[in-house]
Amino acid sequence: FKEDLYAAGNGGPVLVRLHSGGGDIFAASTIRAMLAEYPGKVTVNVMGLCASAAVGVAMAADEVNVMDTAYFMIHNPAYAFFGAMLDADTMRKMADDLEIFKDGILGAYADRTGMNRDELSAMMNAETWMTAQEAVDKGFADAVIRGGKKMDMAAAVQNFVNVPSVLLNAAVV
Question: What is the pTM of this model?
Fold first, then answer.
């Protein structure tokens, strides 16, 4: 990613078009760091979805714009494991680790938004979905880009639990 970023931007301004349901917090943190240390202006345009770990990536930009039909989603960090046999000590350690991860995420969100950590933590606990305007109002983004088209959101959000029905029923263009 870093090689592509520097090759494309050559030290000048870059535009990152972001559409992501998230993923690994360590990968997102690494991408975030690369964007933050890039010498030119970094603009992120959220095209459809900026959720979970992708929000941390967007927070590295100098400017974050969101298509009027796009959405932000924040939630608590979680582990995904399939068929693993975990004992109580391992699960307690995993829970402690998740609290550490959340604390780091809260710092990034608070720095960007200016919101207090308790309010942000409550939003993460509730798995909060935000429209483009709500993301701007809360400080996650700077501006709404008008005139966008809706994207197929159902596939993008299939792994989340509390997806608003209005989002699931959005038109597919």
Answer: 0.82
